[in-house]
Specification:
Length: about 450
Amino acid sequence: MTEHTTGDRAAAERLRERIAAELDSGRERSVGLTLEALDEAELVAQHSPLMSPLVWDLAHVGNYEEQWLVRTAAGQDALRPDIDTLYDAFENPRADRISLPLLSPAEAQDYNARVRARVLDSLDRAAFDGPDPLLGDGFVYHMVIQHEHQHDETMLATHQLRRGDPVLAEAAAPPAAPPFTGPEEVLVDAGPFTMGTSADPWAYDNERPAHTVDLPAFWIDTRAVTNARYQHFVADGGYDDPRWWSERGWDWRTRSGKRAPAFWIRDGGQWLRRRLGRVEPLPPDEPVQHVCFHEAEAYARWAGKRLPTEAEWEKAARLDPATGRCHRFPWGAEEPGPDHANLGQRLLRPAPAGCYPAGAAPCGALQMLGDVWEWTSSDFTGYPGFTAFPYREYSEVFFGGDYKVLRGGSWATHPTAVRTTFRNWDHPVRRQIFSGFRCARDAEGSRR
């Protein structure tokens, strides 16, 4: 009994240390993208109607933390109940947040610091093995940690939309990828696999519960579609040929007038791109990014393929056919490291397609985590037996709407906020997100 109790206490202490470190990491990142990167005028400005002013995101992560870790988990009185409505994402559409009486950058920094002091004080007394499912295995802390990192990725999208000189220090160059000599696609055999999870303490409600899905055999691209390959689609008149577009996709294309991915710039005979304030030659070997669902779908049809369903994507990413086991990450249970995937804004760009062999999925597909979010053909809805937890507004209110599922994370996604079961979703016209895709086809199908 004593050994068991001592072991439980040691495990709880390790969890507290992990939570404290992850909270600190998220805040350091948020400050680096706001207070340390831009002056007050740029922090309070709205750089695009698609995005919030950066100062809204900065205070919002503190308010979310206060509501869940100070008030709900610790049962303490509110610090600033008067600002709850200002930082409620459902009360205030992004385009309207510029008109709100928001906290100034200095006020947001002070508020966040006071919230964090209370959180760390109460963390020392938190019990992770009681009957409360919010506290079980640290779930509510994991939720708040991931929430801040998700807003950090949103802040990076705002930086991408921002006009002006670069303010984020250029990261190390992407790893050199040797000429790719592997197969262009890999076969995933027919059969069942376990989709989703019922046990992962970091998983959101929309990843639950685990359930069996039986799929026919299919082929999936070993690598994400690259800039070079997408250029062939553009050069072949893909944006001008309605054969490759769905009815809704063609309507978007004609109404928007788009002829290339977002941030591509045609300069004489070459393509350039704008990336975080830098204009540079388009790297041919990087996965294409800043394409919407309609563009990805049209390319896949032009290539004689299709987009994978999210079930196909997840099976390819996590099922080890040799053991029948499903991995939390494509390579296994080990948490993502720099040899596995391009995550956490380490490079500020996608790495060349074909990198990270240590992070390959059991089927042989590469870079299924990191680099670019990958569009799937699936609508966002709940799994069989879905239960909203701990609030409907995280997932359930988006079910059945105009949302498509994306998988795999991007170079801007933090390692704590991605896994093979993680589900992202967005409108099929969105291009400011760091989105790309890979193609799939039926095993019985023929290639163009």
